[in-house]
Amino acid sequence: MRSGQVLYKNELAGMLSQLDNGSFNFSYDEQWIKDSNKPSISLTLPKSKIAFQSATLFPFFFNLIPEGVNKRLLCSKKRIDLDDYFGILLEVAGGDTIGAVKIIKMK
């Protein structure tokens, strides 16, 4: 299993995990849910105590992945398979991303 902390404006909002069978889970942090001032990270992932599950990487997170030549260069340099979308996400989304969401790889 691989996991990443999902940060919203540098605050822990939840956890994103890829299970051993290749499916994905996203769950909000309990403190994030309790604070009514904290927004959902996406319209497609509304705040909920119930974890979201998907057979593929959630579209919201998939759209944080670079495309084209940038993707190919990153995969070549970091030795990541071009089809390992979660691996690519964990590699790039901890830095400067578009928007307020970052993904920090769990060791």
Compact description:
The protein is of the alpha+beta class and 107 residues long. The protein has helices spanning 30-34, 59-62, 68-78, 85-92; strands at residues 2-8, 11-18, 24-28, 52-54, 101-105.
**SSE string, helix = H, strand = E?**
EEEHEHHHE
Radius of gyration: 14 Å
> Are there runs of 5+ residues with pLDDT below 50, and where?
none
General form: globular
Distance between the termini: 11 Å
Strand order of the largest sheet: 4-3-2-1-5
Q: What is the helical fraction, as a range of percent?
A: 25-40%
Q: How many domain units?
A: 1
The residue-averaged pLDDT reads 92
**Beta-strand percent range:** 25-35%
User: What is the tally of helical segments?
Assistant: 4
Major sheet attributes: 5 strands, antiparallel
What's the β-strand tally? 5
Q: Which structural category fits the helices and strands? A: alpha+beta
Oligomeric state of the chains in view: single chain
